Amino acid sequence: MCLPVFYYGKETGGAKMANGRVRVTKEFVWDCAHMLAEHEGSCKNLHGHTYRMEVTVERNDEEPQVLAGGPASGMVVDFSELSSIVKHVIVAPIDHSFVYWTNTPSMAEIALRALLEEHDMKIYPFPYRPTAENMCKWFWEEIQDNLPWTLKLVRIRIWETPTSYAEVNL
Ligand SMILES: [Zn+2]
């Protein structure tokens, strides 16, 4: 069911409000290193990116599109609440880490992980080849599992460079 966004029109004297789903997006930025095993170009080498991730949510279909009443009235979710969830689940663990593929066929990646672990350096285990595409799909589950039940994830977009991104949509 799609509830109208202008249900609180009475409060505004019936002023017109746009129809359509209301969504909010928060951006996150982190730095990390990775390598793409078996890549035929320069991505097989150890290198890093400043990743930028956009996380878009809306309230689930059983809920009004924005909260009514309380400190977050008129909001899908307080940006600070969305921010703290994603920072806790994704950004804090991955920032300034070496993201390694736990099933990598690369002896270099295995050796690098062991070296970093031995020296107590930050590593981030990742079950798939750490492309932006796979990050979108993996982070989707991680974020959705940690959102309040009232919120629905509708898009994740991850920029690996200023001109390249991958995304997953509902
Ligand atoms: Zn890369």
Strand order of the largest sheet: 4-3-1-2-5-6
Task: Kindly state the percentage of residues in helix.
Answer: 25-40%
Helix/strand/pairing category: alpha/beta
Strand percentage lies at 25-35%
Question: What is the CATH-assigned architecture?
Answer: 2-Layer Sandwich
Question: What is the 3D shape?
Answer: elongated
What kind of oligomer do you see? single chain
Cα end-to-end separation: 16 Å
Query: What name is given to the CATH topology?
Result: Tetrahydropterin Synthase, Chain A
Bound molecules: zinc ion
> Average pLDDT value?
92
Number of strands: 6
Contiguous helical run count: 3
Largest sheet: 6 strands, mixed
The CATH H-level superfamily is: 6-pyruvoyl tetrahydropterin synthase/QueD
Note the run of SSEs as H and E.
EEHEHEHEE
How many structural domains can be distinguished in the coordinates?
A: 1
Radius of gyration over C-alpha positions, nearest whole angstrom: 20 Å
Outline the low-pLDDT stretches: 1-11
CATH class: Alpha Beta
Describe the 3D structure.
- Helix content is 25%, strand content 29%.
- The chain has helices spanning 79-94, 107-118, 132-146; strands at residues 24-34, 47-59, 97-101, 123-126, 151-161, 164-169.
- The protein contains three helices and six strands; from the N terminus they run ββαβαβαββ.
- Helix 1 (79-94) packs across helix 3 (132-146).
- The protein has a six-stranded mixed beta sheet with strand order 4-3-1-2-5-6.
- It has one domain: Tetrahydropterin Synthase, Chain A, CATH 3.30.479.
- By secondary structure, it is of the alpha/beta class.
- The model is unreliable at 1-11 (pLDDT under 50).
- It binds zinc ion.
- Zinc ion (ZN) binds next to strand 2.
